[in-house]
Design a protein that fits this description.
The chain is built from 11 helices and 13 strands. It is α+β, with helices and mostly antiparallel strands. It folds into 3 domains: 84 residues, Orthogonal Bundle (Arc Repressor Mutant, subunit A); 96 residues, Periplasmic binding protein-like II (D-Maltodextrin-Binding Protein, domain 2); 131 residues, D-Maltodextrin-Binding Protein, domain 2, CATH 3.40.190.290. The strands form 3 sheets. Strands 3, 4, 5, 6, 8, 9, 11, 12 and 13 form a 9-stranded mixed beta sheet that branches. Strand 1 and strand 2 form a beta hairpin.
Length: 334
């Protein structure tokens, strides 16, 4: 019977290529790891590692044994987690992924809060660069269309969008007074949202719709944070989610200005994706915690700006009230 500590040590040394990295990973002194390796080799009856330069690498026997070692460790962890389920404990590893728009802000804060409630929990968090496809484990937060996926799709809300520019850029180039005047400006395009061959639909707060081909983009990016950076560098205008822009403005006031506030871009749906079937207790607990943490603005489909509480209305809301009071006004103009 092999000692689990010895197996964990051997696995960490093989993956890290030496005692130093393994010691940091396992938070144990090198002398303890050397003793574990020595006892393991005595148990199997032969050496498993050899030294090459400054690294420890598995020999032929070590390579073979390492595959079985990983299987034994995996089974041991599964057995431990099954016992934790029976005891009602929230422990073990939780695998999460998120669209890049959420990875550094709201979602990370949700994870920190959840981990604070369950100190035995371990979390692996990955940035999801494409819609998840055939993954069968883990929980994902996605922005936009999830495409074809075998995962369960639960809508969490949507992020409304508006057109933003840097105040200095708008001072120099002029502030558009209507959607038609957007054609006079440089456009920063986010790949997959308003390509050069696609029409962009802007919806007026009073119900009017304007379809336009976005201006040809000199810069096209694949991440919202890069698009925001380009707009802040005064390189042009771009369509951005109000909720994300609000969070950026809280950290960097005065760097973005909403253009044509009465016009909204297409809303981006926010999806919670997770496997079908039975979920672990930790996954179920996290889903419940996450649902309680969804910002109210997502459900209202309304942007919230700095200094406005949850009950405050958007800039477009006031416009709509004025136009309802004055129906003679041309609603096709911003």
């Amino acid at each position: 019977m092999y000692d689990l500590k010895e197996l964990e040590t051997f696995d960490a040394v093989v993956r890290g290529g030496g005692l130093g990295i393994a010691a940091r990973e396992l938070n144990l002194p090198k002398s303890t790891l050397s003793r574990h390796i020595r006892k393991l080799e005595e148990g199997v009856g032969q050496s498993l590692l050899r030294r090459e330069a400054n690294h420890l690498v598995p020999n032929e026997a070590g390579q073979l044994f390492h595959r079985y070692c990983q299987q034994m460790l995996s089974l041991a962890h599964e057995g431990q987690e099954a016992l934790q389920e029976i005891q009602g404990r929230i422990a073990g590893e939780l695998v999460l992924s998120a669209h890049e728009a959420f990875i550094r802000g709201w979602f990370s804060q949700v994870i920190q809060g959840f981990m604070g409630d369950y100190p035995e929990l371990r979390v692996t968090l990955r940035t999801q660069t494409e819609p998840p496809g055939a993954e069968t484990d883990g929980i994902c937060i996605w922005l936009g269309s999830p495409g074809e996926t075998h995962l369960r799709q639960e809508p969490l809300g949507a992020l409304t969008q508006g057109i933003y520019g840097h105040p200095d850029y708008l001072d120099a180039r002029g502030r558009p007074a209507s959607p038609e005047e957007l054609l006079d400006h440089t456009w920063i395009d986010l790949l997959g949202t308003a390509g050069e061959q696609e029409e962009l639909q802007l919806v007026h707060c009073a119900g009017g719709v304007h379809s336009m081909a976005p201006p040809q983009s000199r810069l096209r990016v694949d991440q919202l944070v890069l698009q925001g950076d380009a707009i802040v560098r005064r390189e042009g205008l771009g369509l951005m989610p109000h909720w994300l822009t609000n969070r950026r403005l809280e950290a960097h006031p005065g760097t973005l200005e909403l253009c044509l506030p009465q016009w909204q871009g297409p809303a981006l749906p926010v999806w919670l994706l997770y496997p079908h079937g039975s979920l672990s207790r930790r996954a179920r607990a996290f889903l419940q915690y996450l649902r309680r943490s969804v910002p109210a603005a997502w459900a209202r489909h309304q942007p919230v700006y700095p200094g406005m509480d949850g009950s405050a209305e958007t800039p477009g809301g006031a416009c709509c009230r004025r136009e309802r009071d004055n129906p003679a006004r041309d609603t096709t103009e911003a």
